[in-house]
Amino acid sequence: MKLSDFTTRSGEWLRGMGPHSEVVISSRIRLARNVSGERFCSKLDRARRADLEKRIRLAILAAELAPSMLYADLTQSVELERQLLVERHLISKPHAASEDPRGVAVSGDEQISIMVLEEDHLRIQVLRSGLQLDEAWEQISAVDDKLDDSLEFAFSKRLGYLTACPTNVGTGIRVSVMLHLPALKLTGDIEKVFRAAKDLKLAVRGLYGEGTEATGDFYQVSNQVTLGKVEEDIISDFRHTIIPRIVEFEQMARRTLLNERTHFLDDKVHRAVGLLRSARILTSEEVLFLLSHVRLGANLGRVRDVDVGLINELFLNTQQSHLQKVLGKRLDTEPRRIARAEYVRKKLGSAD
Amino acid sequence: MKLSDFTTRSGEWLRGMGPHSEVVISSRIRLARNVSGERFCSKLDRARRADLEKRIRLAILAAELAPSMLYADLTQSVELERQLLVERHLISKPHAASEDPRGVAVSGDEQISIMVLEEDHLRIQVLRSGLQLDEAWEQISAVDDKLDDSLEFAFSKRLGYLTACPTNVGTGIRVSVMLHLPALKLTGDIEKVFRAAKDLKLAVRGLYGEGTEATGDFYQVSNQVTLGKVEEDIISDFRHTIIPRIVEFEQMARRTLLNERTHFLDDKVHRAVGLLRSARILTSEEVLFLLSHVRLGANLGRVRDVDVGLINELFLNTQQSHLQKVLGKRLDTEPRRIARAEYVRKKLGSAD
């Protein structure tokens, strides 16, 4: 498997399957880990960094974490490939942009990914479609244990796992759930979710994590506290209380739209389809916004001729790097927007 | 001919024919006239007003101004009918809203209309498709002469025609040309037209005259000075200098869009078609805005499956009163917006 193979398949985070997948796009758990006896990344010179990268790489490849595992030395990759990984939620933007020795390991099904020498020595991630936090926790614990055996992670009895940034000290865990909340946005009740999340010390972010705006009604809800809590409690709160409540709130808003504001709902949904089928210039942000309404319409049975699989495909492949990969050519901003509109029209079977 | 017959035909102002009709929607000349020896409207009590209305009505009907001439006593009309006349540019909004004795005369082809007892005793209008100011002037002069024979208009050798509002004293003429300037709007050069118009002491208004915003890129350019000028000079300025220059400026902007910004142009045009074919809720303002882009696209050959006749029909029949007349039922705001969208989809042959 090579980096360039990624585009032909839909990423795990957008498979659109799994429990509560109408609202819950994906569940993600991330663990921050550092190798005992080694300095934190920011304190490593280039040579020691390269040595450590190699040591971790070998440990990962020896651990047999999945039937198929790709390891990529990111210093050897081109920008387009790194952006593809960002768009598939497999590496962070800073990890893509860095010029230091670093790598990433990705399992064939894209459920497991490990950033090597990002902020911490290892950022282990398990990503699953729909609401699958228990499954993700079980999976990531196994990965964590196997790697701990060979690498021995820095751990303090008093503080827990030691991490480069104090906010991650303790469990080093971040639990995130990506939610699609178009109905709450349309009814205006989304503000209540934000307020409730704030009270619960949760972070609500956009599609690509920290510092990004929520686009296309996608919201990433994650914990902020990592110290003084047990992993299982954090996950259980998400799994059994926080997420089900937001899901139910969104479903209520959808029922309200469907039963009491049908024309309003249909207007949003069909305008979105109409624009996707007719626009000649499309930014990725607008596509996201429009597909969000189409997805809502498809889930509520208001759009019959656009299936969910196609919507997911468009979500992924209209992103900047995916689009260029799919079309097999590099494109500047303007031509890319034109090519994106053309690609979307073709996929949606537009008349002209 | 009855008031209620109007909806089945396209109004003169939107026939979309005549010279320069790609840019010039219609040419209008209006004369303000008052009957000598009678007080201005605002000084008339109800009884004398009724007498004067009758006197003018008989003079109009006796004058044989056109092969077929409808006279409507507006106190006997229902609001929907009066709004139809407003939407067809045959009477003003204040004339529709008034509760005093008053009337309107309209020729069968809608080229001639005479408001009786609006601000002045008579407001004579000739409206022609495209740029036809000379023709309109010839036509309105004949009407003016015939009515002057029987009614004898108030005229001062020093001031000219006397009118209720001092701004109309002198010639009592207003020359207006309705222009469709979507390309200048898209390129941003429309501001230059506004500045030039201001320098020339011209007024630029929206679709329905004074106090209305320019909607859907339609602009009504008219003279403001009526005193100390000869009618022929005012018309000649419009006919040979002002309007041809604006038309050429708009045509240049269209060529620029077509040749240098084709994708941008097509994007606007096809989005407009796409939205009209898919929206479930439409205000008349949005329809106007969208049809404006479709009209531009049709004129430039970028839309092949929507013809100009249909565009004009939609312009007229999606307006509030026309829509209700065409659908044969009264509708409140929300149901009207839904019915409008349905009507538009049906007319444009939308898939669903």
CATH topology of the largest domain in chain A: Creatine Kinase, Chain A, domain 2
Nearest-angstrom radius of gyration of chain A? Answer: 21 Å
Looking at the structure, what is the overall shape of chain A? globular
The H-level CATH homologous superfamily of the largest domain in chain A, spelled out, is: Glutamine synthetase/guanido kinase, catalytic domain
Work out the oligomeric state of the chains in this entry: homodimer
Uncertain regions spanning at least 5 consecutive residues of chain A: none
Q: How much helix, percentage-wise, in residues of chain A?
A: 40-55%
CATH class term of the largest domain in chain A: Alpha Beta
Q: Report the largest inter-chain contact.
A: A-B, 18 and 18 residues
Number of discrete helical segments of chain A: 12
Q: Tell me the major beta sheet of chain A.
A: 8 strands, antiparallel
Order of helices and strands of chain A: EHEHHEEEHEEEHHEEHHHHHH
Q: What spatial order of strands do you see in the largest sheet of chain A?
A: 2-3-4-5-1-8-10-9
**Based on the structure given, which CATH architecture of the largest domain in chain A is correct?**
2-Layer Sandwich
Structure description:
The structure is a homodimer of 352-residue chains. Chain A is of the alpha+beta class. Chain A is 46% helix and 16% strand. In chain A, α2 crosses α11 and α9 packs antiparallel against α10. Chain A is globular and about 65 Å long. Chain A has helices at residues 46-62, 79-87, 93-97, 133-151, 182-187, 190-199, 231-260, 262-278, 284-299, 308-317, 320-327, 333-347; strands at residues 24-33, 69-73, 103-107, 112-116, 122-129, 155-156, 160-161, 173-180, 202-205, 218-223. The model of chain A has no long low-confidence stretch (mean pLDDT 91). The first copy, chain A, folds into two domains: 3-253, Creatine Kinase, Chain A, domain 2 (2-Layer Sandwich); 262-348. The longest helix of chain A has 30 residues, at 231-260. Chain A binds chain B through residues 263-264, 266-267, 270-271, 273-275, 277-281, 334, 338, 341, 352, and chain B through 263-264, 266-267, 270-271, 273-275, 277-281, 334, 338, 341, 352.
